[in-house]
Hints:
The chain has helices at residues 2-9, 20-23, 27-36, 49-65, 78-90, 105-109, 123-127, 131-134, 159-164, 176-190, 206-218, 236-250, 275-281, 317-330, 333-343, 350-353, 356-365, 370-375, 388-403, 409-428; strands at 39-45, 69-75, 97-101, 138-139, 142-143, 146-147, 151-158, 269-273, 288-291, 303-306, 308-312, 379-380. The chain is an alpha/beta fold. The strands form 3 sheets. A 5-stranded mixed β-sheet has the order 2-1-3-11-6. α4 (49-65) runs antiparallel to α15, α11 crosses α12 and α19 (388-403) runs antiparallel to α20 (409-428). This is ABC transporter, solute-binding protein.
Amino acid sequence: MKKAIACISMVATALALCSCGGSGASPAAKNAAGASGVTEVSVWHYWDGTNADTFDAMVDKFNSEHKDIKVTTTSVPNADYLTKLRASASSNSLPDISIGDLIWVPQIAQMGKSADISKVLDSKLLADINPALTSFGSIDGKQVSVPVSGNNLAYMYNKTLFKDAGLDPNQPPKTWEELKTMGKQILDKTGKPGYDLLTEAGDNGEGLTWNFQVNLWQAGGEFLTADNSKAAFNTPEGKKAAQFWVDLIKAGISPYASWGKFEKGQGGSAQEGSWMVGIWAADPPFDFDVAQLPVPEGGKQVTNLGGEQAMIFDNDAKKVAAAGKFLSWFLDDAQMIDWNEKTGFIPVRNSIASGEEYRSWVEKNEKRLMPFVEQMKYAKARPNTPLYPQISMAFAKEMEKAFAGDLSVDEALTNAEKAVNDVIAKGKK
């Protein structure tokens, strides 16, 4: 989960300033590329490790198959990404394609020069992508982004601790009440917390907010109004979700400020992201399994979407067309299946997620991905607003007071509502 939080806005190493000059093509370089008959397309992303290596290998494959286009890549540390992108926008040296966290899309769109991707991608291809993801890039009548990777949250648990507590490791909880009961049994029998919760705001709030939204939505609530004009969580549904967390904390099932126990093998379970399956696949720290998220009585199955989206900048018509050609190739069946299998990302295209080839691969190679794949049809996106990072932090800072026991649920929700509405009001000025 910590890796995920870093991927949502969130932490990374500093980027040397000298890299700023090498990422966007200078006018001279653009002219030279045009003169040679090869259109150069620069791509920024923040992936590292296996994800970056896989992407670079795919870029090499594209370049070998398309002699008229040369795609180059630059990996920018997550924490520096938006700052560097804004600096590039100011100096008119934006890359041709930006690939970043989906919650960044509204902020990047505010920089200007976002091309309408629907004009360079086939409409049938766009229609095949999970609508919750494509809707995130629909801004001011344009489709400014397209998803290239997906993830979501599911219930991950330690099978060994389940056995030690006398629980059946093949029967994970399906409801909130079962989660409480099993979590308490793990605590009583092993002395270890039964369920990890992200209860602190931290540096940006999103770990708490992103996880809490799942339970809020499961209870039938909403985070913001449909037009993102004000907070919508201070409702009976919001109180139900917050009280669920408080009850877990008070019972010792989810001790306050204890996130990380599960990932160290010292906790029974947690709400974790699909990326953890890939991280642990080669060398799992303990015997773990995955199930769809438990739901409240009378509630509904839902999870929170994550992933990266690609945006094309309108640097010139030839580059936009070439960038569109690359993304069309990348999103094609063969490349998408290869990408998802090698990285552990969840398919963003419905036909691939439901297709026999990909699902057979999951069943044969990594069955623990299947709950995440199945949950994509229930997945919901966070509010599509450039103010979201500030909103997330404002919400988390107030709600952590309830989880710490300093405020009641009602008091924390009321304060969080005011804090979020203040952020929105200031953003309108």
